[in-house]
Amino acid sequence: MISQLLIHLKKESLVAAITCIVVGILFIAWPGGLLTFLLRILALILLIEGVICLVRLIRSQDSLQRNSYVLPMAACLFVGLLLLAAPRFVAGIFPVIIGLFLLFHGLKGIATARHGSRSTMGGILGSVIMMIVGILLIARPFGALKVLMVFVGIALVYDGLVMFRLTGGVSEKARQFREGHDKNIIDVDYKEEDIN
Question: How far apart are the first and last CA of the chain?
Answer without folding.
Answer: 36
